[in-house]
Design goal:
Order of helices and strands: HHHHHHHHEEEEEHHH
Radius of gyration: 30 Å
Largest sheet: 3 strands, antiparallel
Shape: globular
Structural class: mainly alpha
Helix content: 55-70%
Distance between the termini: 103 Å
């Protein structure tokens, strides 16, 4: 049937004429505006440089704190002080349980410590997976309590004895009590961001000092290498415990406990509708008890809104601890060249890790590059550069 007949039939039936098709409008491709790639790249570079500095500064402060403590407190001098080692490093000269070779003893101790770390990490992941948050909080609270009270008291006592300060035990107790309570509140409850970050650095430095003091020398170096290798497996392997922990937190849209992670920015806040901050938001304890008994309020409560998460770089406290262990162990050698070489090596490794992080854009282990570069710098400086410099000084050769 022709189009003229169809139009006549539609006119007889009282139907409106069919709209005319414009062939010029057919198959017209949509115009897609190009994205502003330059602005995005500039923002990424600015973001990357900003947060690189936000991690380099706290890592440097933590390592400087460990170096400073080792240099002024004689308790960490392994030559002049009698050695007491941790119970899970049984193969050492003090217990007389030795294989006859310090390397064999160190390997056995490393395997025991790594096995303990793997078991405890798996327990932590299981507790988090099954939402046993109170047990994890109690575990972390107890660890912070021991470090902020007991080890702070020991270090303060050593400083008073070292510089011969006139201070009684009551004053020391009050100082330790106020310092510890403020740290517990800032880390496990809420407080200013800079105060929380400061206490996290202090806790990391104290834990590093514990390892330096109570681990045999060869065992400590083997543990550093073993932990760096384990970190690769734990983060990158699909069934690695740390990867499972991170993925579980992302699936639940939760933040990992602040006493385990150092963040360069504020993570979550709850604000009033006018934009006025009122309290910190903890997604692990986000249930609110806002209901009150009695008559309802005469005017509605202000609407609460949750701010979006501010972008930032996060670094586990374990990374701070083992960075500081490496530099602190170099500081016990009484050679500033070795200390500075390890210090610079760790920062170089951290920058390389952050560069790779910006490329792959997924969670990466922060220990392997820094630890292995630091060990290489330590060996080269301690056993090659230092003897050469000493010989040149004896021969009065100046470059």
């Amino acid at each position: 049937m022709s189009s003229v007949a169809v139009e006549a039939e539609r006119h007889e039936n009282g139907e409106p004429p069919a709209p005319e098709e414009n062939p010029s409008n057919q198959n017209i491709p949509e115009v897609v505006e190009p994205e502003d790639d330059d602005a995005e790249e500039q923002e990424m570079l600015k973001y990357g440089a900003k947060h690189v500095m936000m991690l380099i500064v706290p890592v440097s402060l933590c390592m400087i704190l460990v170096i400073f403590t080792i240099r002024i407190i004689t308790m960490y001098d392994q030559v002049s002080q009698p050695q007491v080692y941790l119970v899970y490093t049984p193969f050492n000269e003090q217990t007389k349980k030795t294989t006859g070779s310090p390397i064999s003893d160190a390997v056995l101790n490393m395997l025991i410590v790594l096995g303990l770390v793997i078991v405890m990490t798996c327990v932590l992941v299981l507790l988090y997976k099954y939402r046993c948050y109170k047990i994890i909080e109690g575990w972390l609270f107890l660890s912070s309590l021991i470090l902020l009270f007991m080890f702070t008291g020991l270090n303060l006592h050593e400083i008073v004895m070292r510089f011969n300060f006139a201070m009684d035990y009551i004053t020391i107790s009050l100082v330790v009590w106020n310092f510890g309570v403020m740290g517990i509140i800032s880390v496990h409850w809420k407080g200013p961001l800079i105060l929380q970050q400061g206490y996290l650095l202090i806790i990391s430095a104290m834990m590093a000092l514990v390892f330096i003091k109570y681990l045999p020398e060869w065992t400590l170096w083997f543990i550093l290498g073993g932990i760096a290798v384990y970190d690769l497996f734990a983060v990158l392997c699909p069934k690695g415990p740390l990867r499972i922990l991170v993925e579980t937190a992302e699936e639940r849209n939760e933040q990992i406990f602040p006493s385990l992670i150092y963040s360069s920015t504020v993570m979550w806040t709850v604000t009033m509708a006018e934009g006025e901050p009122v309290s910190s938001y903890n997604p692990l304890n986000s249930s609110s008890s806002s209901s009150a008994q009695g008559s309802p309020p005469t005017r509605p409560l202000p609407e609460m809104e949750q701010e979006p998460e501010e972008q930032g770089v996060k670094l586990g406290l374990g990374d701070f601890i083992f960075y500081s262990v490496l530099v602190g162990k170099a500081a016990t050698a009484d050679d500033w060249n070795t200390v500075m070489a390890c210090f610079v090596a760790i920062l170089i490794g951290l920058c390389l890790t952050l560069l790779i992080l910006a490329i792959v854009k997924k969670a990466l282990p922060a220990l392997p590059i820094s630890i292995f570069v630091g060990i290489i710098f330590y060996v080269c400086t301690r056993w090659c550069i230092k003897p050469m410099c000493d010989q040149m000084a004896i021969s009065q050769v100046y470059v």
